[in-house]
Design goal:
alpha/beta, FAD/NAD(P)-binding domain, 9 helices
Length: about 250
């Protein structure tokens, strides 16, 4: 079969433009494609909700790809082992109450689960502002291409309407900080020193709706609450993503 460059180009442009147009309004926009964001998107999408994952980088996976200091292994505690099993991520016991898994397999399986749940990925996109209407609820995100931001170009953005946004942007807590700049209702305290046990045990309580229509998850949740960081143990990330999804589902799928 002879390849036609025009057909290839049109196939990409036409299909992606259809998706972009369809996703100008979604049920849930998950900002950040790290472990907590991928887990949240998979659970939310599995309930039939329309989910967009907005990722500023070319690839998803966040800090999980690199494992611990570029050794491609992660640790998960007993409490989150069921989520490794849920996503069919192979693991091996290590010591008392710990499980070790491949960071590459973990990202691949989480990404596949989000895809299987119907989530659409929009990579190389940055959230630069939020929309809040008279009722005081977050109703959408203002987006632009990441290379535009990196180059410092003045290019006007576009928007995505959503019923909920999930801030899964990690340590930076990007969406929470955008809201903080314009509302006294949100304060991002910033994360504390490394203290894995404290950070992991508290992350579920920090995973919450901090502003009407905005839920924080993963390290963004800990950063907002002033909690400690935990390093390459990822059970809390998965549990936080699951909990964030449950908050959305409780509201949108009563």
């Amino acid at each position: 079969m002879e390849l036609d460059e025009r057909t290839i180009t049109r196939a990409i442009l036409e299909t992606q433009m259809e998706i972009l147009l369809d996703y100008t309004d979604v049920d849930v926009a998950v900002v950040g494609g790290g472990p907590s964001g991928l887990a949240a998107a998979s659970f939310i999408g599995s309930r039939g909700l329309k989910v967009a994952i907005i990722e500023k980088k070319l690839s998803v996976g966040g800090g999980m790809w690199g494992g611990g200091m570029m050794f491609p292994r992660i640790v998960v505690q007993d409490e989150a082992k069921r989520l490794l099993d849920h996503f069919s991520i192979r693991s091996a016991p290590y010591g008392n109450g710990y499980w070790v898994a491949s960071s590459v397999e973990s990202v691949a399986k989480l990404t596949a689960a989000a895809c299987d749940a119907g989530a659409e990925f929009f990579n190389l996109m940055t959230v630069e502002d939020v929309m809040v209407r008279e009722q005081g609820r977050l109703s959408g995100l203002v987006i632009n291409w990441t290379p535009v931001e990196m180059a410092g170009l003045h290019v006007d953005p576009l928007t995505i309407g959503c019923r909920f946004a999930v801030d899964a942007t990690g340590h930076d807590a990007v969406v929470a900080r955008l809201v903080e700049k314009k509302s006294d209702a949100v304060r991002v305290k910033g994360e504390g020193f490394m203290w894995a046990d404290r950070a992991e045990s508290s992350i579920i309580s920090h995973t919450r709706e901090i502003f009407p229509g905005l839920i924080v998850t993963g390290m963004a949740a800990n950063a907002v609450s002033g909690e400690h960081r935990m390093g390459p143990v990822f059970g809390g990330m998965l549990l936080s993503g699951e909990h964030a999804a449950s908050l959305v589902i409780r509201d949108l799928c009563p």
